[in-house]
Specification:
The chain is mainly α and 311 residues long. It has one domain: Orthogonal Bundle (MetI-like fold), CATH 1.10.3720.10. 70% of the residues lie in helices and 0% in strands. Helix 4 crosses helix 12, helix 6 packs across helix 8 and helix 10 runs antiparallel to helix 12. It is elongated and about 80 Å long.
């Protein structure tokens, strides 16, 4: 009776399950990633992204719920403690009016972050819509928008803010955001216009047009997702700039006004007391610098992830 032996050739023959898995493995391994998946993969490897994101989340948290880290009201003042240094329960000292500098620094984040976020959202939406339509349709619409944006570009935003906000009395967050959106949208519109013009010349858009896709479908389905990357990068970096601009306008006395608690207002009031009470200027100015730096760091990380030339 012949003996049965294990043949090496038989051992190398894959089972049907192994054959299917082996055939599917290369496809899964080599599956192409989209731009956004690729960008997220790069962001997860950047420490700067995590540091800036944690700082921004912390700032948003204390803007919404300042009572999480302080129980003192920014309006509770005692003139008997005017310009006093740090004390028990008051680590940042007191300002000229005897108000707690720590509480005012915490509550000041609300106005600055709100102005930065709402201005960025408004300018991005308005600029993306107008610039995207101009780049897609071209013609007289593009010519009119280009001339209008050139007019706004010719107005220095700081000088325009001094003139505009000096005429319109109020000094509320809504007023400051409206002004900054009016002078901030042309930059986003120009970026969006260029991105749409570049995207609509790609082969996949030409193929969609040849297949009879409508203009709205091509714009929303094929062009907009591929033209958003540069807009998001510019908007993220601009957010920190808007926060700095709000503080500058408030420092000059034409931005936010009391009783609103703002870092710019506190810096303006403390600037004349820098020799006698430097702590009044140090903490709100430091908070402003860290906030602007966090948004700029996030914008740089997003730019590096979304720009293939920088990889």
């Amino acid at each position: 009776m012949p003996e049965t032996t294990n043949s090496p050739v038989a051992d190398q023959v894959p089972t049907p399950v192994e054959a299917v898995a082996a055939a599917a493995a290369p496809e899964q391994r080599d599956a192409p990633r989209s731009l956004w998946n690729d960008a997220w993969h790069d962001l997860r490897r950047k420490p700067v992204f995590y540091i800036s994101s944690l700082l921004i989340l912390f700032l948003i948290a204390i803007s919404l719920w300042p009572s999480l880290i302080t129980s003192t009201s920014p309006y509770a003042c005692d003139l008997g403690k005017s310009q006093m240094g740090p004390a028990n329960g008051h680590p940042f000292g007191f300002d000229t009016q005897g108000c707690d500098v720590y509480a005012r620094t915490v509550y000041g984040a609300r106005a600055s972050v709100a102005v930065g976020i709402f201005t960025t959202l408004g300018a991005t939406i308005l600029g993306s819509v107008l610039g995207g339509l101009a780049g897609f349709y071209g013609g007289w619409w593009d010519a009119i928008l280009s001339r209008i944006s050139d007019i706004f570009f010719g107005i220095p935003i700081l000088l325009g803010g001094v003139v505009f906000l000096s005429v319109i009395k109020g000094g509320s967050i809504t007023t400051v955001v409206t002004f900054m959106v009016l002078l901030g949208w042309p930059q986003i519109a120009r970026i969006a216009r260029g991105a749409v013009i570049t995207a609509k010349q790609q082969d996949y858009v030409q193929a969609a047009r040849a297949l009879g896709a409508s203009s709205s479908r091509m714009l929303l389905r094929h062009i907009a997702p591929n033209a958003l990357a540069p807009v998001i990068v510019v908007a993220t970096i601009a957010l920190g700039t808007y926060i700095s601009l709000e503080a500058t306008l408030s420092f000059l006395g034409v931005g936010l006004k009391p009783p609103t608690v703002s870092w710019g207002i506190d810096i303006s009031q403390a600037s004349t007391m820098i020799r006698n009470a430097p702590h009044m200027l140090l903490w709100p100015a430091g908070a402003l610098s860290v906030t602007v730096l966090a948004f700029i760091m996030l914008g740089d990380a997003v730019r590096d992830a979304l720009d293939p030339k920088l990889r």
